[in-house]
Design brief:
This protein has 401 residues and is α/β, with parallel strands linked by helices. It is 30% helix and 19% strand.
């Protein structure tokens, strides 16, 4: 882990290269009709072939039984203890789209949502309202005024936006408005510590004014706010591991995660194919690349088993392009499992594989939960994968005399 100071003198800078492909929501569970998970169902010959030449196992993102958010799940893969470095999603979304956060600012990740005439939630994501429709709604929210507070609303993508509050004496220790289920009302914000009452009152006023502004909209007629956060401070990943790390991610939150880890965030397009192109264009400039694949998680959260299978098959088609770069270490990991049968993040271990010139295969038949459970890596904390990558790439020397 990044905090293991006893290992800091063991990290060495070399010319070897590492690629970490994070497949968001990678893991799944068996479909009740077939007994096979999404990975076991998908036709993924390239990932399966790579698994047959790799060291495989399962990772636990936080702790057994704990379903992580994407923030903790990714930070663990980078080597940060997710229980120590708690970062609200608001800060990650804000940093990911280049929003300035000053000390004392508070940011939240916002969703447009749909409520009925009784204020009951019908759709927490407003039917995944597209950016061309949500952008004008953000402009209207940005006109909301609250005495003594600078209120700024920034569009992110589709149904998501960032709310930034700037005023003296704000606190991130407040509750969220998203109940995480439909058929109930959005929650009122409450104080979680002394000194946060001012922020509670500001946010509840904003939510009420947002409802008034959006009331006549067919889909995005209300907002949900979560992930309250102020500006985070983490040890720089590159400084600790002696790397020159870069991130290629289309979605803002994951650019935000890379920013707090102090990776260089490389601008890219909106698709994973665009990300691969960007990786090729910048491959000579860095020795560590984090590249992110989002669609599997989105399909899993929608509860669409077949769609998640399709996203995995789409990913598989681009695996040869990544392998053709011939990195010294190529890891495929997930930040968490998102089984379609649960339509949510889950606590289940996540398939993982690491390929290097030192891995010749260990009899694993393919890349899925069942096969990886039999791999030589076993079941490890996600925080340990960076140590494996550094060792396989010659960047971690002997510990002790």
């Amino acid at each position: 882990m990044i905090d293991l100071e006893q290992l800091h003198d063991c990290y060495v800078k070399t010319g070897s290269k590492i690629i970490l492909l994070v497949v968001d929501g990678l893991g799944g569970l068996a479909h009740p009709d077939t007994g096979k998970s999404e990975l076991e169902t998908a036709n993924i010959p390239n990932l399966d072939a790579m698994a047959q030449e790799s060291a495989c196992g399962l990772t636990t993102p936080v702790m057994p039984g704990v379903a992580p958010g994407s923030g903790p799940g990714h930070l663990a893969l980078f080597g940060y203890d997710p229980l120590k470095y708690l970062i609200g999603r608001g800060a990650l979304e804000a940093l990911g789209i280049g929003v300035e956060l000053l000390p004392g600012d508070v940011a939240a990740r916002g969703n447009f949502c749909t409520v009925d005439d009784n204020e009951m939630l019908v759709d927490r994501r407003a039917g995944r309202i597209p950016t061309n429709l949500s952008g004008p709604l953000c402009e209207r929210l940005n006109e909301i005024t609250i005495d003594g507070v600078q209120v700024d609303v920034f569009p992110v993508q589709d149904y998501r936006f960032v709310l930034r509050l700037r005023a003296p004496g704000l606190s991130e220790d407040i509750s969220e408005t998203d109940p995480q289920i439909t058929g109930v009302e959005a929650l009122k914000v409450k104080s979680l510590s002394n000194g946060s009452d001012k922020t509670v009152n500001i946010v509840n006023e904003f939510v009420q004014k947002a409802r008034d502004v959006l009331r006549e909209e067919e889909r995005g007629n209300m907002v949900l706010l979560r992930g309250w956060a102020q500006l985070p401070h983490l040890p720089a990943m590159g400084d600790v591991y002696k790397l020159n790390p870069a991130a290629v991610a289309a979605y803002p939150m994951y650019r935000g995660l890379a920013t707090v880890a102090q990776m260089k965030v490389i601008p890219t397009g909106k698709t994973f194919s665009d990300e691969v192109d960007t990786l090729y264009q910048n491959y000579e400039d860095h020795d560590f690349f984090f590249i992110h694949y989002k669609p599997a998680d989105a399909a899993g959260e929608d509860g669409d088993f077949d769609a998640k299978v399709k996203t995995l098959e789409d990913l598989d088609e681009l695996i040869p392009r990544l392998r053709n770069l011939n990195p010294d270490v190529f890891m495929v990991a997930g930040d968490h499992s998102t089984p379609a049968i649960m339509a949510a993040h889950s606590w289940h271990p996540v398939p993982f594989m690491l390929h290097s010139e030192l891995t010749k295969g260990e009899g694993i038949s393919g890349f899925n939960e069942t096969a990886c459970n039999l791999g030589a890596i076993g079941r490890i904390p996600a925080t340990n994968i960076m140590l494996l990558a550094l060792s396989h790439s010659g960047k971690l020397t002997k510990f002790g005399p």
